[in-house]
């Protein structure tokens, strides 16, 4: 039986996710935001009433589909395994802080690639910031940074996160009156429910099987000189570039880009902060969703941190807008960098100190 593995599978996953993002955008999702994990989690936080920013409130079926698709794939292939108990509070904090970086840039690494493929030069400026943040994270890892070792748990613990998504889908389908939905703005722009859910399911299955991630390619290239995951990143970009050219959505430049701003410094620093945070938690938001679906309750806690971070960012004016990064957002990015660097030093220095004591006693 013919199967696709290795570079072929990760490349196919990238091509498929890039193509799905363009399809969803063509079918109604916001321009240059066909599939953005950070933005869509932010919209879900708004739909649940965690923030009051009316233009960004909607239960995004794509997120639900990714989780359920990855969960089904993990069960079907025997790779589901409930694990957890590894620095949950620190992971929550890193997800929270990293989300602020994403919302100052206005997008996760997946949306960064989608914006790049549509000619948004602001996203091209954010890419080196993202890489710089990952590089600093790798430096901490090489110094011995660790969030500890997760332990095996009862499988039922891992079922909670997918069950939450099933519940959210049910509330969306019955049009539960307490869910909020934007009447205008990005939250009001969405593809049909079944298409969005189906796209998410397919993306979740492929991402689970390929272990797809958008932090991993740069991290592995720096740490191991291993370009394996880069094939997925390149596939996503090329599929999205071709799609944008076909539907006439390519617009090269800095100004006038959809749901974006041209403040280069804060695009760079926002993604640097996010890159650092998500390197320390070992995976981009998409990878965290998939990992949580495979039974990793620590990843589920990271996603909860992202949701709360999104709510905090919009409730306190930290998120950027097309006018640029707010003053509050700028302060938050600087504070986030200081806090995350502190976490990095604290959780790598302790191990280095322990090694030194062992050497001295020997």
Automatic annotation (TrEMBL):
The keyword Transmembrane helix belongs to this UniProt entry's keyword annotation: yes
Transmembrane segments: 6-26, 63-80, 92-112, 124-145, 157-178, 190-207, 228-248, 268-287, 299-319, 331-354
Any Pfam family: Sulf_transp
Keywords of the record: Membrane, Transmembrane, Transmembrane helix
Domain of life: Bacteria
InterPro entries, sorted: Seleno_YedE, Sulf_transp_TsuA/YedE
NCBIfam families to which the protein is assigned, alphabetical: seleno_YedE
Protein name: Uncharacterized protein
Source organism per UniProt: Desulforudis audaxviator (strain MP104C)
């Amino acid at each position: 039986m013919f199967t696709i593995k290795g570079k072929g599978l990760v490349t196919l996953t990238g091509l498929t996710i890039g193509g799905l993002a363009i399809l969803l955008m063509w079918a109604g999702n916001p321009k240059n935001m066909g599939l953005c994990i950070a933005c869509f989690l932010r919209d879900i936080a708004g739909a649940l009433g965690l923030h009051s920013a009316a233009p960004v409130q909607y239960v995004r079926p794509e997120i639900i589909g990714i989780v359920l698709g990855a969960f089904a794939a993990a069960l079907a292939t025997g790779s589901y395994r409930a694990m957890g108990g590894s620095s949950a509070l620190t992971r929550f904090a890193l997800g929270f802080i990293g989300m602020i970086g994403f919302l100052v840039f206005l997008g996760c690494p997946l949306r960064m690639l989608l914006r790049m493929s549509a000619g948004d030069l602001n996203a091209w400026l954010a890419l080196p910031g993202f890489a710089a943040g990952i590089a600093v994270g790798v430096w901490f890892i090489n110094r011995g940074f660790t969030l500890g070792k997760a332990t095996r748990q009862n499988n039922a613990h891992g079922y909670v996160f997918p069950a939450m998504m099933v519940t959210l889908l049910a509330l969306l389908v019955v049009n539960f009156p307490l869910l909020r939905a934007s009447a205008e703005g990005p939250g009001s722009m969405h593809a049909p429910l079944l298409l969005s859910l189906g796209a998410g399911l397919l993306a979740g299955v492929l991402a689970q099987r390929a272990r797809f991630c958008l932090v991993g390619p740069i991290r592995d290239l720096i740490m191991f000189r291993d370009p394996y995951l880069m094939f997925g990143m390149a596939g996503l970009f090329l599929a999205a570039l071709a799609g944008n050219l076909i539907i006439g959505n390519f617009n090269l430049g800095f100004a006038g880009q959809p749901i974006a701003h041209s403040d280069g410094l804060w695009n760079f620093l926002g993604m640097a902060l996010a890159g650092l945070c998500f390197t320390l938690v070992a995976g981009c938001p998409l990878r965290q969703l998939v990992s949580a679906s495979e039974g990793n309750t620590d990843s589920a806690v990271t996603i909860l941190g992202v949701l709360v971070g999104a709510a905090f960012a919009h409730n306190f004016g930290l998120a950027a807008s097309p006018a640029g990064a707010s003053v509050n957002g700028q302060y938050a990015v600087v504070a986030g960098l200081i806090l995350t660097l502190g976490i990095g030093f604290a959780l790598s220095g302790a191990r280095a100190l322990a090694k030194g004591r062992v050497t001295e006693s020997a």
